[in-house]
Design goal:
Elements: H1 21-35, H2 51-67, H3 74-96
Helix pairs in contact: 1-2, 1-3, 2-3
């Protein structure tokens, strides 16, 4: 009995995406949402809030906004600004509780 999925491919056969700024920001956003307990951790299947980690991610994103100013496409700039703003507001609302 084979443990391979249909088609004979395994996770190791599929290359991981990398080097894409938009995907990088999306991954930081997901980590931020997990840190704020909004999204379940896909490994544990549970939500857990870690405000220190969320704050670190917000500060990292704010640093990226500053350091990449004038060096991004309009789409990338809009995505980075929105993700940073949304996570900052969500962090602030959770931290106040």
């Amino acid at each position: 009995m084979s443990t391979e999925p249909s088609g004979g491919r395994t996770a190791e056969d599929v290359p991981l995406p990398g080097g894409d700024f938009s995907l990088f920001i999306a991954r930081l956003n997901i980590h931020g949402l997990m840190s704020l307990g909004v999204v379940e951790n896909p490994v544990t299947g549970k939500s857990h809030m870690n405000l220190d980690q969320a704050k670190m991610l917000v500060l990292d994103l704010e640093m990226l906004v500053e350091k990449t100013s004038g060096n991004l496409s309009q789409f990338e700039q809009n995505q980075l600004t929105k993700v940073t703003s949304d996570l900052r507001h969500l962090y602030e609302s959770k931290a106040e509780r």
